[in-house]
């Protein structure tokens, strides 16, 4: 009975086609901006259906790993045939409530000794030709067997041996950039946002291919159909305060630090989740990169801003194109400082603040916050201590 009521409500609320169109417009990785190339995709993996699955997604809490029969049904559905068995599988898959209950959240399901074997669906370059370095959107099929929630990370074990010790390469962590429902909205895929790590050799005055990053290059060079060894999901630092939907969410990212916020923003504004319905705060994204070609998912943020002017703000810091108030390069801390007063006021009222991206961003950020606190007559140490104690302070830098 309960399930019938929920199905009916879901169908009334989401009216299929509208949901799909909105999802695709804002997040489909196949929509590459002009000048941004398409590295590898698997046409056979693309899903054009909407229907009951799309309507169901987001109505319940944490997904659990489905049974093999359910996985079969999900794969069948991906090929475009949504069978009754597949629909029923998804209903069971999402049978959790209330959505704020974290007692069943996935945590380290797959460990390095027995990793899960996912399959690459697509890898595409998502930065323009003048970007400093390359960043790729990597979509992986986990067949519904490796569920996660927004703010968690996957581990990737690159193939091969470490030449330094002859042992198998070790796991590297990547923040998950899709919501729990994946970009296919079926709960069977995971998206990563990976920057290709290269080594600039000062003597050679060019990149030294022998010293390039192992795992990031492996992922950026992967092809559709490649098997990829995964661990996790892990991470409890970057979770959303879903039990307090009135809370302001301030997100500060440098480069690929955008990944967890992409998962948040899909959940808050793109998918018709119960949290999206309840959310009454302000989501405020600060993104710092070198230049406009290096912006990540920029069109998506602009689309969300247009649709949700009262609940979403988006500010960028382009260090090589913009200047700060002192005429220097505009770094992420300079952009946040422009709104320092308001950020502090919102934090004082309970906002959560998140920092993700390069480790090097934190000293500048902390220095800036200390300066703003001083100007407001606040004791910086005490203020931050209070934020940490209240769980309002979230940092994941690497
Ligand atoms: P490694 O092979 O581990 O090399 C590291 C660096 O050393 C590279 O820059 C490489 O060029 C350089 N190097 C290699 N050999 C030499 C040498 N002989 N001398 C000098 N330098 C050398 N990254 C992302 O892109 N996206 C994410 O979303 C993301 N999320 C993360 C989340 C967490 C929680 C953490 C901890 C890290 C995250 N990372 C993320 C970073 C990621 O885990 C890897 O550290 C990164 O991709 C580099 O790994 P790699 O295997 O490519 O480089």
TrEMBL record:
<dbReference type="InterPro" id="IPR039261">
    <property type="entry name" value="FNR_nucleotide-bd"/>
</dbReference>
<protein>
    <recommendedName>
        <fullName>ferredoxin--NADP(+) reductase</fullName>
        <ecNumber>1.18.1.2</ecNumber>
    </recommendedName>
</protein>
<dbReference type="InterPro" id="IPR001433">
    <property type="entry name" value="OxRdtase_FAD/NAD-bd"/>
</dbReference>
<keyword id="KW-0521">NADP</keyword>
<comment type="similarity">
    <text>Belongs to the ferredoxin--NADP reductase type 1 family.</text>
</comment>
<dbReference type="InterPro" id="IPR035442">
    <property type="entry name" value="FNR_plant_Cyanobacteria"/>
</dbReference>
<dbReference type="InterPro" id="IPR015701">
    <property type="entry name" value="FNR"/>
</dbReference>
<dbReference type="InterPro" id="IPR017927">
    <property type="entry name" value="FAD-bd_FR_type"/>
</dbReference>
<keyword id="KW-0732">Signal</keyword>
<feature type="binding site">
    <location>
        <begin position="357"/>
        <end position="358"/>
    </location>
    <ligand>
        <name>NADP(+)</name>
    </ligand>
</feature>
<dbReference type="Pfam" id="PF00175">
    <property type="entry name" value="NAD_binding_1"/>
</dbReference>
<feature type="binding site">
    <location>
        <position position="329"/>
    </location>
    <ligand>
        <name>NADP(+)</name>
    </ligand>
</feature>
<feature type="binding site">
    <location>
        <position position="175"/>
    </location>
    <ligand>
        <name>NADP(+)</name>
    </ligand>
</feature>
<feature type="binding site">
    <location>
        <begin position="319"/>
        <end position="320"/>
    </location>
    <ligand>
        <name>NADP(+)</name>
    </ligand>
</feature>
<keyword id="KW-0560">Oxidoreductase</keyword>
<feature type="domain" description="FAD-binding FR-type">
    <location>
        <begin position="113"/>
        <end position="240"/>
    </location>
</feature>
<dbReference type="InterPro" id="IPR001709">
    <property type="entry name" value="Flavoprot_Pyr_Nucl_cyt_Rdtase"/>
</dbReference>
<feature type="binding site">
    <location>
        <position position="396"/>
    </location>
    <ligand>
        <name>NADP(+)</name>
    </ligand>
</feature>
<keyword id="KW-0285">Flavoprotein</keyword>
<feature type="signal peptide">
    <location>
        <begin position="1"/>
        <end position="18"/>
    </location>
</feature>
<feature type="binding site">
    <location>
        <position position="195"/>
    </location>
    <ligand>
        <name>NADP(+)</name>
    </ligand>
</feature>
<dbReference type="GO" id="GO:0004324">
    <property type="term" value="F:ferredoxin-NADP+ reductase activity"/>
</dbReference>
<dbReference type="InterPro" id="IPR017938">
    <property type="entry name" value="Riboflavin_synthase-like_b-brl"/>
</dbReference>
<feature type="binding site">
    <location>
        <position position="256"/>
    </location>
    <ligand>
        <name>NADP(+)</name>
    </ligand>
</feature>
<keyword id="KW-0274">FAD</keyword>
């Amino acid at each position: 009975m309960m399930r019938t009521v929920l199905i009916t409500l879901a169908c009334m609320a989401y009216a299929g086609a509208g949901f799909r169109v909105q999802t695709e417009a804002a997040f489909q990785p196949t929509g590459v901006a002009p000048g941004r190339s398409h590295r590898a995709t698997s046409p056979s993996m693309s899903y054009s259906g909407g229907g009951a699955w799309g309507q169901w997604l987001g109505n319940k809490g944490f997904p659990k790993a489905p049974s093999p029969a359910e996985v079969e049904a999900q794969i069948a559905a991906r090929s475009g045939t949504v069978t009754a068995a597949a629909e029923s599988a998804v209903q069971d898959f999402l049978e959790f409530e209330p959505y704020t209950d974290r007692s069943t959240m996935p945590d380290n399901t797959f460990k390095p000794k027995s990793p899960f074997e996912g399959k690459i669906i697509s890898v595409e370059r998502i930065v323009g030709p003048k970007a400093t370095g390359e960043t790729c959107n990597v979509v992986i099929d986990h067949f519904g067997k490796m569920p996660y929630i927004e703010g968690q990370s996957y581990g990737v074990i690159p193939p091969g041996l470490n030449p330094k010790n002859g042992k198998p390469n070790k796991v590297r962590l990547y923040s998950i950039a899709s919501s729990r429902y994946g970009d296919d909205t079926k709960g069977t895929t995971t998206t990563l946002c990976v920057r290709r790590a290269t080594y600039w050799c000062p003597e050679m005055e060019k990149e030294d291919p022998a010293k390039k990053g192992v795992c990031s290059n492996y992922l950026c060079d992967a092809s559709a159909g490649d098997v990829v060894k995964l661990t996790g999901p892990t991470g409890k630092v970057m979770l959303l305060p879903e039990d307090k939907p009135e809370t302001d969410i301030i997100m500060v990212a440098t480069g690929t630090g955008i990944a967890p916020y992409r998962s948040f923003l899909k959940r808050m504004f793109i998918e018709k989740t119960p949290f999206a319905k309840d959310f009454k705060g302000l989501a405020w994204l600060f993104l710092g990169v070198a230049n406009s070609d290096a912006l990540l998912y920029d069109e998506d943020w602009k689309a969300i801003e247009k649709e949700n002017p009262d609940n979403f703000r988006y500010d960028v810091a382009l260090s090589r194109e913009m200047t700060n108030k002192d005429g220097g390069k505009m770094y992420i801390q300079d952009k946040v400082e422009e709104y320092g007063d308001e950020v502090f006021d919102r934090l004082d009222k309970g906002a959560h603040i998140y920092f993700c991206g390069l480790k090097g961003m934190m000293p500048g950020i902390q220095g800036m916050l200390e300066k703003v606190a001083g100007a407001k007559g606040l004791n910086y140490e005490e203020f931050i201590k209070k934020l940490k104690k209240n769980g309002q302070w979230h940092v994941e830098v690497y």
